[in-house]
Amino acid sequence: MDLSFATEIVNQGVKVGLMISSPMLIGALVIGILVSIFQAVTQINEQTLSFIPKIVIIVGAIVIFAPWMSDTLTTYTRDLIVSIPQMVMHR
C-alpha cells in the first residue's frame, strides 16, 4: 500500500466522520447561539440553561438523521472492505 492510497483512505474517513457529525454540531451551534441571545436579552446568566435544549436538539438530530448516517457508514465500510484487494496489490 503506497502513501497516496493510504492518504485517500484517511481523507475519506475524515470526510465521512465530518458529514455524520455535522447535523448534531450545527444543531447544537444554532441552539447555543439562540440561548445566548436569549440570555443576553433577559440578563439571565444561568450556566445550565443551554444544556437541556442542546441535548434535545442533538437527540432529535440523531433520530431524524439516523437512517442517512447508517447508510453513509455502511457505504463507506463496504467500499473500504471492497478496496482490500487493491491494498494488497499496491504493496
Structural class: mainly alpha
Oligomer class? single chain
Tell me the radius of gyration: 20 Å
Number of H- or I-type helical stretches: 3
**Ranges with pLDDT <50 over ≥5 residues?**
none
Helical fraction equals over 70%
Rounded to the nearest angstrom, the distance between the terminal CA atoms is 4 Å
Shape estimate? elongated
Biggest sheet architecture = none
H-E string: HHH
* Beta-strand content: under 5%
Total DSSP E strands = 0
Describe the structure.
This protein is mainly α and 91 residues long. The chain has one domain. It contains 3 helices and no strands. It has helices at residues 3-42, 51-82, 84-89. Helix 1 (3-42) runs antiparallel to helix 2 (51-82). The radius of gyration is 20 Å and the shape is elongated. The termini are close together. The mean pLDDT is 90.
List the helices and strands and how they pair.
Blueprint: H1 3-42, H2 51-82, H3 84-89
Helix pairs in contact: 1-2
Task: Offer a few descriptive terms.
mainly alpha, single chain, 91 residues
What's a quick, concise take on this entry?
With 91 residues, this protein is mostly helical. Helices cover 86% and strands 0% of the residues.
